[in-house]
Amino acid sequence: MKLDIIQRILKDYFQIDLITAMNITDIDDKIIKRSEEKGISWSEISRKYENEFWDDLDKLNIRKPDIRIRVTEHILKIVSFIEKLVNDGHAYVGTDQSVYFKVSSYPNYGKLQNIVLDNKIVPHKSSSADFALWKAKKQPNEPCWSSPWGEGRPGWHIECSSLASHLFGDTIDFHAGGLDLRFPHHENEDAQSCAFHCKPQWINNWLHIGQLLIKGETEKMSKSLKNTISIDEMLEKYSPDTFRMACVLSNYRNTMEYGDEMMETAKFTNSKFNAFKITCEDYLNGNARSNNQENVDPEQILKKFQENKDQIDECLRCDFDTAKVMTVLSELTKSTSSILKYNFKNQSSYQSSYVDVIGPIYKYTEKMFETFGFREKSSIVSQDDNLVNLVEDLLKLRMDLRAEAISTKNKQLFKVCDSLRDSLKKNGVNIKDYSDQSSWSFNKK
User: Fold this and answer.
1) What letters, b where the CB count within 10 A reaches 16 and e where it falls short, cover 28-39?
2) Residue 428, Ramachandran bin (φ over 0: left; ψ between -120 and 50: alpha; else beta)
3) Taking Cα atoms as reference points, which of 372, 276, 418, 407 lies closest to residue 333?
4) CB 207 within 8 A of CB 3
5) How far is CA 155 from each of CA 27, 106, 313, 366, rounded to the nearest angstrom?
C-alpha cells in the first residue's frame, strides 16, 4: 500500500512518466513443497497464489504494475545472465553442480548494509557468504530446466537482477521492497547486477518500506508464526480507505503496528476530512451561506491556501512525507471551516459570498485524496437509486417533523427526530442538522 502511494505521487502529482515492473517468482522451494503436499502441479499452485495476489490488490485499490514478468517464462535470459558472471570470474560451479556468486570478487559488497563476512569454508562453495545463482536438481521429480551446468532452476536473487536488466538495461531509477529485503536480497541483487554491467551503480534510488506488524508482536507477519491477518479479515471491519489513511499517516520507512488503535485513528481522520468535504458540497450546491461574512477576508484565506500548497509540495519533495501533508491539509480544512458556519436560507434569498474561496480549496483537497489513492470522491457513494430515494423521502419526512418541532417547541417531536436520526446512523446513513435544514451521506467504514 505504501509503495502504491509513492508511485501515485510520482505519476499523478509530479507527472513523472514512471514505468513499473514486477517480477513474479513462480517457482521456489515453498511452491515445490506445497505442490507435493497438495498433489497438484507447481504451475497450478503458483497461478493460484498469483491470482489471489492480484485480487487483493484490486480490493485495496492498489494499481497493478505496468509490466508483470514470470521467472519460468524467461529461463534462457537468466541462464545467459549467469553465464556472463561465470565467464567474468564473478561466479563458479560448486561441488554440488550449483552455481554460486563469488562475493569476494565484488569489492563494494555491503553497500546497502554494513556486513561482517566470516568467509569460512562450507560444503559445496568457496565461502559461506557466496550465494546460489543456479540451484542444481536434487530430487527426481523436482521441476528443472537445462543449463550449461546441468539441470536445475534459478536462485531467488538472480531472477530479479536478470529480468530487471532485460527490461531496463544497466540503470534503474527506483527499486523498492520491504525493509527486510535490504539484506541479503537487495544486497545480493545489487552485487551481481553491478558485476554483470561492469559499473559501480545499478540502482539510482532504493526505497525500503517499513514492515507491517501485529500490535504487540516484534516479528513481521508470517503464517508459520501465526501472527497474520488476511486482507479479507481486515476488510470485514475496516474499509480500504481506512487502511490507506493509516499508511498515509505513517512515513513509508517506518514500521506500522496493525491494531484497533491505529485503524480507529485512521478512520477518525478520514471521517474529519469527509465531513469537511460534505460541508463544502453543501455550500457549493447552494444549500448554505456563510454566517459571518463581515469577519472574513477572502484574500487572506487564499493567501494562506497558497502557503499550504507550497508546504505540501515541499513535504512531497522531501522523501514523500505524507504524514506532514495530512497535518497541513488538516490546518487548511480547519481554517476554511471557520467561514463555513452555515445558516440555511430559502432559495429566494440565497446568496453565496465565498464560492471563489471554498471551491478551489475543496477541489484541491479532493485532488490530493485522489493522488494518494483514496477511492471515495464524494459524500454520496454509489448506491442503488431506490435506496437513495428512500433515504431522501425519510429525510424529507424528518425535516417536516423537525420544522414542526421547532415552531411549536414540541419536545416529543424532537425525540422522534433524534430517534429516526440515530436509527438511520445504525444502518449506515449519517444526518447532519443545521438551523432549518439537514444533509445526509452514507457512512464509510
Assistant:
1) beebbeebeeee
2) left
3) 276
4) yes
5) 10, 19, 42, 45
Upstream peptide bond of 184 is cis (omega within 30 degrees of 0): yes
Q: Which residue has the higher pLDDT, 113 or 192?
A: 192
How far apart (Å, rounded) are the C-alpha atoms in residues 268 and 234?
17
Place of cell 487483493: 56
pTM metric for this prediction: 0.83
Long-range own/partner contacts, residues 34-43 (CB < 8 A, 24 or more apart): 42/143, 43/72
Q: Say what the pLDDT of residue 256 is.
A: 94
Maximum Cα–Cα distance for the chain, whole Å? 95
In angstroms, the Cα distances linking 204 to 6, 22, 201, 264 are 16, 18, 7, 37
Look-up: residue for cell 419526512?
A: 397
Identify residue 226 by its one-letter amino acid code.
Answer: K
Task: Report the 10 Å Cβ neighbour count for 85.
Answer: 24
Query: Is residue 227's pLDDT more than 60?
Result: yes
Residues paired with residue 176 on neighbouring β-strands, in sequence order: 207
Phi, psi of 402 (to 5 degrees): -70, -40
Better-scored residue on pLDDT, 94 or 337: 94
Residue 93 near residue 168, CB atoms below 8 Å: no
DSSP-derived 3-state class of residue 438: strand
Which amino acid is located at 100 in the chain? Answer: Y
Instruction: Provide DSSP, 249-289.
Output: TS-TTS-EEESHHHHHHHHHHHHHHHHHHHHHHHHHTTS--
Q: Between 394 and 91, whose confidence is greater? A: 91
Reported as a single tens digit per residue, the pLDDT across 96-144 is 999 999 999 999 999 998 888 777 778 999 999 999 999 999 988 899 9
Cell of 22: 514486477
